[in-house]
Design brief:
β9 and β10 (546-551) form a beta hairpin. It is built from 21 helices and 10 strands. It has 2 domains: 2-157 and 295-317, ABC transporter type 1, transmembrane domain (ABC transporter transmembrane region fold, Up-down Bundle); 336-583, Rossmann fold (3-Layer(aba) Sandwich), CATH 3.40.50. The protein has 584 residues and is of the alpha/beta class. The longest helix has 51 residues, at 53-103. It holds the Pfam family ABC_tran. Residues 336-569 form the ABC transporter domain. Residues 20-305 form the ABC transmembrane type-1 domain.
Length: 584
Amino acid sequence: MRRSTALGGILEPVQSRIRIAMAMQIIASAATIVPYVAIVELGKILLSGDADTFGVVLPVVWIVVAGLGARAAFGSGALLVTHYADVSMQAILRRKIVTTLGTLPLGWFGRNTSGSVRKKAQNDIADLHYLVAHQAVETVGAVATPVFGIGYISYLDWRLALLAVATLPIYIAAYASMTKDMDVKMTEMNKGIEAISSTIVEFVAGISVVKAFGQAGKAHSRYRSAAISFGDAYGGWVGPMLRTDALSSISLSAPIVLLVNLLGGVWFVFAGWVTPLDVIAAALIAMALPVAIMAVSFGMQARREASAAAGRLVELFETPALLEPSNPKSPDGSDVRFDKVSFSYDGTTEVLRDVSFAMPSGSVTALVGASGSGKSTLATLVLRFHDVTGGAVTIGGVDVRTIATAELYRYVGFVLQDVQLLNESVLDNIRLGRPDADLATARDAAKAAQIDERILALPRGYDSVIGDDALLSGGEAQRVSIARAILADTPILVLDEATAFADPESEAEIQRALSTLARGRTILVIAHRLESIMDADRILVLDGGEIVEQGTHDDLVAAAGHYARMWTAHQRAVITDAREAAAR
């Protein structure tokens, strides 16, 4: 019921055009029967031996031509209307998808794979194409043509009408068996397709890394596993269904229908109920019925797929947007404060609990802790990737939830470990936060980020397009994102393990760029290399979503607690790495 409601809502803007097309198809279906009626009448005329045969036959021929013309004109016109309706609906949906994605919290994109987003934007809309452009018209034709056909056969003789649909119950019974639990199976298939899409994106995005480390043979293992799992599930479902479908389709095949109608017709002729001409007309119309009935079954399948797609799209559209404040406020300063902050992704399990601390303007605050301790979640609350479920995060004394999004990102910038560059020119990527910046200003930012020379070495310099003629390493892409942050010139900056995946040479370049970027700003930094945050004004140690220790590096080492144990383990790892490097 929910899917049906969702589908109705999506089709509502083009529903009137679909109805017009359906009315046109009804006329086309009625015209389809006209030639059969004319053939019967023509046969009667020819068998009657009328002296003025030609004068009588000519109007009948023109009726046949008119019927065929009306069928072609109204049938083609109906499809033309629905295709225009489909184009209009796709434009509406794609704009709505873009609008919806633009209003969602940035944290939503971290919880949803690019494969699932791609499926909604492409595959699900494609599933709706057949429903709008073809299914409505074809289903109406598939229903109306048999109705008009059976109506005319009933006019000839009701027994011939029963004979025309004699094999239909066999197909209906088989079809009911095949479509049992169809919705459940379709849901499973769509989850499988989403998994494959996600693993394809993951494989393509990470192929350079796995090849560099000699793991190319293993890189596609998740994709292969997802594809095999999908294939097995699909084969297990479709195999038995296809065998049933093959057997049931025989009952509606032209030879079987013709045989049944001719054998029965011969019996009826000998019984004196009908004439041979009536049998021929009924048999010809009966042979056209299976094609129409098969179209109905295909249309029902298309509608199920479209309903499922509509349900997924509506689910996206109903995702709560990031609420914009009705009376936005502007921060008074660049200090940041967490006041008894709690956060939960699912509303049940708390990832952060009662977190309170202050970041004075111009200070550097570092977050450390084991994986899953809540570091990245805490940092993204400043960026309002999510809204807190308890407490408040304030900038310059103003709750971030009361700051307009555009205003917020003029105060807070970020450089994350997962670098995202657009398929645009390098220049446009750098000035993403300041589209009006000129080339000279962008170059100054790139120089500060230690990436200007590398950009100039590209085929078209700053006009080179990322992914086309600008193929950057991970460290180089990271420095482009740092240049972007430098150009944006926000007073507050969040750094989330910006050097996590960089090689030693790139890390040195990134560290120099970050040193330039950090000057005079309020910094919240997450680092897995503890030596990089030794000079931080305050280090917060998180464990299980709570702050268990805080202080300077020296104070925390002297306290011999969580941080001291992490520092000792880190020092041991550094010594071990140095010894292994010397041995090589």
